[in-house]
Amino acid sequence: MWFFGSKGPSGFSCYSTAEEVTDGIDGTGLTAIVTGASSGIGTETARVLALRGVHVIMGVRNVATGTVVKDTIVKEIPAAKVDVLELDLSSMASVKKFASDINSSGRALNILVNNAGVMGIPFTLSKDNIELQFATNHIGHFLLTNLLLDAMKRTAHESGKEGRIVNVSSDFHRISYHEGIRFDKINDQSGYNSYLAYGQSKLANLLHANELARQLKEDGAEITANSLHPGVVATNIIRSKSIFAGIVNKFGKYVFRNVQQGAATTCYLALNPQVKGISGEYFVDCNLAKASWRGTDVELGKKLWDFSMNLVK
User: Fold this and answer.
1) What is the pLDDT of residues 154-173, one digit of tens each?
2) Exposed, middle or buried: residue 74 (CB in 10 Å: 0-12, 13-18, 19+)?
3) Which residues are catalytic?
4) Is residue 237 predicted with pLDDT exceeding 90?
């Protein structure tokens, strides 16, 4: 967003790393859930939050892979508090079990990072018969957030510390179906374009955060909800696409951000005191940014909320 990597009002830029934007911040006593923490931005987010003293719960689809990541973090940071729990966001049953385990444990929950995602895959239906990108990127996180919201409200009230919900969206939210957003057409395979569908799921992440922020403010809850674009990062979500693989392998280090930079805005929104009290906003490079007109459409956000509620019921 900021030209030639110049620093924005926050003092950070596209070159800032997750460690830099959380430098000097003590997260001891806080508990965070990070979805998709077994690779890429999710792993770096979990590592840096743990480095700052946060108790991190990694929600991962593959527990074995997640455990390897946890062991690596603990080896680097012996005092790190990290747990691994199974979470398949494409399955409502898995989301409900994960949330039930968290809620029944009575754990405090200060931070929820909705990070996990899939990108540009062929038309596929989830176990719940929902287009897989929409199911994983949005519906799974929408349901998870709703199921954990009471725990976050209770924690914020009892601790006196602001809760934070962070949705990892993308500037792909600007790329969507030209005839207008039709969430009720997500399962229509005719004319399906995997990248337009991905853009729609990322728009849903942004709209979800905005509508959630509005409702939390109305409820008087001490919880903020924001969304972000992490930048174009050379992670597995890109490397797995043949259309990008050659470019990434050849020019990645010159064109794309590394994961340390890619996780910066996520960690900034999760921990940095500069964003205390700020809610319903979209961030790029750790600075406030302007979303697309669809991304700021309040009525569309309400429509998506109702549509999502009907799906998860």
Assistant:
1) 999 999 999 999 999 999 88
2) middle
3) 192
4) no
User: 100 to each of 118, 144, 311, how far by Cα in Å?
Assistant: 24, 10, 19
Q: What pLDDT band is residue 177 in, cutting at 50, 70 and 90?
A: low
- Segment holding 86, helix H or strand E: strand 82-86
Cα torsion angle, 35, 212, 228, 153, sign:
negative
For 135-149, what is the mean pLDDT?
98
- For residue 250, what are the CA distances in angstroms to 159, 245, 253, 255? 49, 9, 8, 10
Letter for the amino acid at 284? V
Cα–Cα nearest to 218, from 164, 140, 280 = 280
Residue 53 to residue 27: CA distance in whole angstroms: 5
> If 0-12 CB within 10 Å is exposed, 13-18 middle and 19+ buried, where does residue 277 land?
exposed
CA separation, residue 102 to residues 119, 202, 206 (Å)? 28, 26, 25
> How many other CB atoms are there within 10 angstroms of residue 158's CB atom?
9
Q: Given the structure tokens 């029944």, which residue do they identify?
A: 104
Q: State the sign of the Cα–Cα–Cα–Cα dihedral 285, 37, 136, 94.
A: negative
Inter-CA distances, 229 with 179, 206, 264, 265, Å: 24, 10, 10, 8
Taking the CA atoms of the chain, what radius of gyration do you get in angstroms? 18
pLDDT higher than threshold 60 for residue 236: no
Task: Report d(CA 203, CA 201) in Å as an integer.
Answer: 5
